[in-house]
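Supplementary Data S3. Sequence and structure tokens for construct A.
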Amino acid sequence: MSKHGSGKSGLSRVLAASALAAALVLSGCTAGQNGRPGASGTAAESGSDRDENRVYLSTAAAEPAVIKGTDAEAALAASQTLFQSSPVAVVAPGGDAAAIEAAAAEAGPAGAPLLLAGDGLEAELQRLGVRQVKAFGAPAGAAESAAAEASPGPSGPSGLPEPTGTAEAARTDEATGTAVSGTAAASGPAEWESVLGGVEILGPDQPLDEVAGAEEAAPFSVLLGEDVRKDLPATMAVLQAAGVRTHVDAAADPRADPETIDFLRAEPEHNILAIGADFGSTAQFAARTETAMTAAELPGGGMLAFPSRRMVALYGHPSGPALGALGEQDVEATIDRAKKLAGEYKGLSDEPVVPAFEIIATVATGSAGEDGDYSSATDIDLLRTWVDAAGEAGVYVVLDLQPGRTDFLTQAKAYEELLKEPHVGLALDPEWRLQDGERHMEQIGSVTAAEVNEVSDWLARLTLENNLPQKVLILHQFQLRMISNREQLETGHDELAVVIHADGHGGPGQKLETWRALRQDLPDDVWMGWKNFYDEDTPMFSPERTYGDVKPAPWFVSYQ
């Protein structure tokens, strides 16, 4: 099983970012002394040892955080998060692509924050102690003001003003008096004075005063949403100016991609920041970051079961072949067989295909037994042998429950110590869930959504509290009545990947009809699974048919 180092436990030891309220979902923090060069408190707290001509970056610890919003909002938030103080800054109007591009080219290499005109701009410049701003483009309203001043007034036959052309054509260069066009070239200090009163404003051709850059880059590891580089150029310029590490996380979930996990773990003492709405809330991102930094990875890498991989499993019981293919050989031979079986699918999927076991942990019985539950529990020590061997070999394990007259949660809790393993998931088999007075083989069992939800709530909590990667929770089904009120299933637990597993056997037409029926009115956030029967299917689907005729292709396939 692929694993990284354990990292540091506890969010308090995973450093992160702080920031603003309006455009963010961020936790606030106050920068202060922490032993890093240049760290000496906020701009408002600057003392006699602070060089007013030096840029100071934030170095204080905070929880993982998410920046959202427009480019103007995100750039402002990034400045608040990454910079303690800066005597200089670059400004540009939002929505003016040419001006922003020119400003970004200036700000990043200069180590100065780039802020777009809008709410919060003046307050942030004051917080940073900015004395000099280099301005690109024209602030909002400047073009309209210039056009109005250039208008000759009413002179036509109707008494209305004559057309005067574009606002850019009406403006003139202050030095030459000649007309200019293009907002990036047309800006001048006068146009920004009403927006940035009290700060020395330079035009795009004037150099910033020389200032001393920060002594080192801001200690941040920043995850970017897939389109951030393209959609938030001003924000990217702020990140460049602060010298932070960046990594594009297309999944917007730090648990999903082994490369993202490696990126974060390479600098475990860094603050962690995400930019982009797809990363979710601060609380959700913080929990996911904790897992990414410290939990073991699943077989095949990463910490999300799907869609990072597909799984192909042998189903049965270690006692022998009567209950499925898994028991037809010893554990080492079963591992080899599962790997070979998964290998038959690898050329058929864009995702890696991981071998798996689905082990029947509690077996439905014809007699009531001493406890009267018509279910026989397998000894944990026997299962441990198979679970440990599978983990060492990179094989995922699902423990299957056939509870008889007891409930699923009671049986699941009996295997808690095995479910605390990072590569072990759970399957519930309603066919073998009896109500009072029922017996196996006399009717097909069923379970309520409420009982399933009790299990999913418990399993999600177990996963979270033990800092485990996402767990597979399989719900076997071949008739809709087997899970009553299925629409009420809780499938939104971030810690679980819920699979509805089409468990019927028969001919191809019958199996595909079951598949289509189970997919109708499917709850949200559910993955689909499929079972192939060596003896009962007529004929059994080949790997090509399993991924080709079954649409969409199932994420978890088991063989019984």
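Construct B, processed identically:
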Amino acid sequence: MQEKRPITDWLPITKKEVEKRGWGELDVILVSGDAYVDHPTYGTAVIGRIIESEGFKIAVIPQPNWQDDLRDFKKFGAPKYFFGVTSGCMDTMVNHYTANKRKRSTDSYTPGGKAGFRPDYAVATYTKILKDLYPDIPVLIGGIEASLRRVTHYDYWSDTLKPNILEWSGADLLVYGMGEQPLREVLKLLKKGVPFHQLTMVKQTAYQREADFGVPRNKKWNDIELNSHELCLTDKKAFAANFKHVEQESNKTFANRIIQKVTGKNLIINPPFPTMTEKEIDGSFDLPYTRLPHPKYRNRGAIPSYEMIKFSVNTHRGCFGGCSFCTISAHQGKFIASRSEESILKEVNQITEMEDFKGYLTDLAGPSANMYRMKGIDMDICDKCVSPSCIHPVVCSNLDTSHKPMTELYRKVDEHEKVKKVFIGSGIRYDLLTKSYNKKGDEADMDEYMEQVQTRHVSGRLKVAPEHTAPETLKIMRKPSFDHFKEFKKKYDKIDKKHDLNQPLIPYFISSHPGCEEEDMANLAVETKEMGFKLDQVQDFTPTPMTVATVVYYSGYHPYTLKKMFAPKNERDKRAQHKFFFWYKKENQPWIEERLTKADRPDLIKRLLGDTSHKGNSKPPKWLAEKRKESKGKISHKKRRKR
């Protein structure tokens, strides 16, 4: 299929492709840390197609070499209006390093999955190069790396508090969140002749200005001033206090403008645009994507991230869960922007026409699979809301949690003559499907959705994310009590047994989360063992910019209460917490018994490892017998030495 398409179906990435279009000077050049895949899942493709749709001449420089003579950055010359810079679909440092700061050996957004094709802190690296080469050309930065680093933030990988990314990259303007609306506004103003440096009133953008020039006035916006970057460097509580305002203003319908002083300048963050309408989000997904990687990569191997999503469909954006360790709402917002059924079914049709499509859709969902079309019943109430979550500590009584639109959509896609099976690969919010938590939800509606998903859309096993079992840790995470997961599992097992499906439920958990003590991990191991789980879908907490949990991790204070809070930070404590996940591995069992003995928790030893007292005729397990024999030998050796 790719061979049949003319090269002009893709946005140009070489000088020859620009010339084929008959273009001379380009209007905008995008620089990206990802390989160029012309698909609506990839931000570079979306932004590039929007720029094209507004009539601008656009080219892309994907994964430029930043270590040679910089020819990649020079190949198109200077654009008429601006350079756009993004690290790609992921923050570079998350892409490059594990939670233990070990360098990853692969990169899912590069042909062949090869690592080493983008620098650390790609947005700043690319921007500095462009500013050196073309000092007079504006640079607009965006994407998740820029978005989540838009104010003073803790950077886990350098273990430092960094200023906003405009300051340390030298960029002129930053678009945060999902960038379609602010980008279109920027492009329309540029077409009208407004100079780039005067783009100070575009919503959902941020820029810096010398403090002596003050802050531009806007009668429609009220301002809120954060603690300065310099104060944050010396006062961790001041840094923590900032985050509450940043999170709340990012998720309001009518937000305030945010100001923060940094090195003699004012950082100015304009309020966000309203949530995209159905027409707007459809317009973004209905652009003329080829849905394919650029032909240039044909001989370099498959792009792993593309292979994962090539037969998947995104139904909506945003997440109202507000989990304290997650960046989805910080970037996409808490209000759900849903596509129309017509737009979704149109994309399904496109996929079924792909030559290597075998009849299986790998995903039909959004960030949280079961939030499609969910929104406030009375939007006036939502307009006044400042809560970062619509379902914590309880499900908001104004939230419509009907699963019917999703159930009906699944059935319609199921009926497509070329679709054999639709799988739901994204995570499902199980708490929205339990009557104990979602008290005002329609139980028949919940059960209908679960039955539809379990009988038609599970690929072998279903993954959900209770994340923890400890009440205090779950409270910090903004997750519900583990009791609700137990209720969900009962419902799940009942449907599984009814239809003889034999599809296991796989729960995800996090260790070393702020607020979590070692004993909490022992309790987690015990509770999940007693439910019949041997955990493998587990991870250590990774501090990423723009989350409550990261603020707690760095500062030791909760940003909403400013009370002190514990967070496991050193490598020994983190490894210890992680070991409890794998209580069933023999090599971990002596260590677990020793730790729980020191904690005076024989009850947990018994529940987790069995009775280790072994009185009467019972024999200790082999590992314990060997440990005791080894200890006895050491004691005898010491006695001999004393003699």
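Residues 53 and 287 are 8 Å apart (CA to CA). Residues 614-643 form one domain.
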